[in-house]
Amino acid sequence: MTLLATSFGVVAGRGLAKPDVIALDWGDLVPDPDFALLMKDLRELGVINHGELSSGFEQEKAEAVTQKFNGSVVRIPGFVVPLDLTGQGITMFILAPFVGACIHVPPPPANQLILVTTETPYEYDGLFDPVEVTGIFDTASASTPLADIGYIMTAQEIAPFDVTTY
């Protein structure tokens, strides 16, 4: 498990320390016994031809979630699957571990998806551009027309993700 905590330090003029931010990896969201199986399943996905799908876009079942990070401020990279798009940007989206999740291939298991909401609409460049989301994290079951989701996050910051610095 890769956990890196960094402190934002002291807020200028107020003397209040901001909470530590926990940098998460997608593997951190899966309880240990399920992680090896999930990674095996994701590796085997590869390219899926539409004729090979058994019954449409079925979501893999992996019900186990971790509550280890509930209430924490976390940072995690991923890809945006928009749910609520306005002229100003996105205010609700699914954060997924790989590009095209929930749209072009069967969705990942619920413990590999995060429902993100933000008060400030995020203007994003497209599905192929990774982002990094920082915010309050929690375990919660949510269902959307695209997938069942195991986690929710209230975004404090959404920024383009630079894969060269990860």
User: What is the CA-CA span between the terminal residues?
Assistant: 15 Å
Contiguous low-pLDDT stretches (5 residues minimum) are: 1-17, 45-57
Find the count of extended strands (DSSP E, 2+ residues): 7
Largest sheet, if any? 5 strands, mixed, barrel
Reading side by side through the largest sheet, how are the strands ordered? 3-4-5-7-6
Radius of gyration: 16 Å
Class of secondary structure makeup:
mainly beta
Quaternary structure type? single chain
Average predicted local confidence, pLDDT:
77
Q: Strand portion, in percent?
A: 35-45%
Helicity, in percent?
Answer: under 10%
Number of helices: 1
Q: Helix-strand pattern, N to C?
A: EEHEEEEE
Shape: globular
Can you summarize this structure?
With 166 residues, the protein is mainly beta. It is 8% helix and 38% strand. The protein has a 5-stranded mixed β-barrel.
Please provide a written account of the structure.
8% of the residues lie in helices and 38% in strands. It is built from one helix and seven strands; from the N terminus they run E-E-H-E-E-E-E-E. A five-stranded mixed barrel has the order 3-4-5-7-6. The protein has one helix at 32-45; strands at 4-6, 21-23, 73-86, 89-96, 114-122, 131-143, 148-160. The model is unreliable at 1-17 and 45-57 (pLDDT under 50).
Ordered list of secondary-structure elements with their pairings:
Layout: E1 4-6, E2 21-23, H1 32-45, E3 73-86, E4 89-96, E5 114-122, E6 131-143, E7 148-160
